[in-house]
Target: Major facilitator superfamily (MFS) profile domain-containing protein
Amino acid sequence: MAESNGKGRFSPFTRQLFVTVAIFFNTMGHGAGVGYVAVLSMQLQVPGALIQITPSVLSWIASMVGPSLVIGNFLSGPIMSRFGRKKAMYCVILPAMVGWFITILATTREELFVGKILQGISFGMVLPLRSCMLGEYLTPANRGPFMSTISLGQAAGITTAHIIGSFISWQMTGLVISFFFFISLIITIYSPESPSYLASKGRYDEAREAFRWLRGDGEEQELNNLIKLCLLAEKNKIELEILRRRGVMIRVAEAIKKPEFFKPIILMTHAFFLGQFSGAMALANYPTKVIGGLIGPEASVPFWMIFLDVQRLCSNMATIFIIGKVKRRTMMLSTGLLCVLSHVGIAGYMYLKKNGLLFYDAAWIPMLLLNLQIMSVGMGMVPMPNVLAGEVYPLEYRSICGSFSLVTSSFILFTSLKTFPSFLEAVGLHGTYVIYTLILAYSLSVVMYLLPETKGRTLQEIEDIFRGQPLLPEEMEVRKSLQKIHESRLSLRKSSIHSIDI
Model:
């Protein structure tokens, strides 16, 4: 890693962009894995396919990502802490590439399952890692815009898989997707290790070199603060060990009685229901059933699938600019109401059409309703729960809440993907949308009852709102002493609460 002083041919912005691209392509690969289920649906449920799969088998392939995410997430932390961010990235890429090669060469359903599980484990590992790496590699000015590439990469991956899978075989589509991880691997090889990780291991000279390669010479104060925090962590090692030995279960038992803990938990559980039952996952994994069911057998499913993917991508891009100007409650309520109304409209349209009660019908009516649904998904239902998860959880129990977020998101993801085909078979498309409407309306009511306005407020102010009153002076002193012990670790990790952005 030459020219560590940051005065070489490339500016710090260019170098930070370089390391961000590795995470972007990794995220894009996992997004493509979500969209790949639709490719399997179109190509393996036709006569003469190499592997014949039923709708039930397809639902298992799609939903296996949920449990796999949990496994990967709990593997990521120890690897990241012990071996560093760079080697952890290698561990993310390896199962993903192996999983895709197994999928490409598969001749049985079981091999498709194994490939999907490995991809899910890789996905679960990268969720905390990508936030941690971006937080540690980037300057504060670049952190917000560059971190928004996570949502863009996810949407771009889904769109790419749907486009490619509409023209070439599912095996070749999988091969193209595997190259996203190969590109991520090459960039990771030529990227530095995280300065925060190097400093935490006492490798201060290497930390300075990596920091200056990434940031240049203009942020020496942050570099000095980073090293001081690591030295403080060494001094507080005994206190940290005592806190760890208290055990997670004891801390949960204490926290469960506090409104600043259980209110955000209830809030975020219902926010995750909004995200997963908004129809985003159903359209990404089962577009033939939704689009074909709405328009009819004459519909050009590949065209409308790609059209809706591009619209979602544009909605995600618009959200980056809108979210900084609009209040959180306003954003959540407006997009939530739009999602509920679009579901009501689709359910009503399908019911009237099925029973021959429409006095006028045209293809633009269901597609308009579907476009409104996708707009609500891209601008609020999927990104907003991720934003709120980083704001409403209390600092003291943030790690516990982060684990809860992932487990809850994974369970809801698994449930929504596994039950969607069963709902279609039992009550039809209009009945499925009615069920989703009820879930969305209930969840949105709970979210709007519990959600305070968080925009422009500090994390402590948000925590005080959930508590119902600010901390007493003596409680504030205890909090400050605890923060001194925890501050070093929280500053080194800088990882946001990770929920599933799909």
Remarks:
- The chain has a mean pLDDT of 82.
- The first helix runs from residue 12 to 43.
- The chain has two domains: 1-191, 260-502.
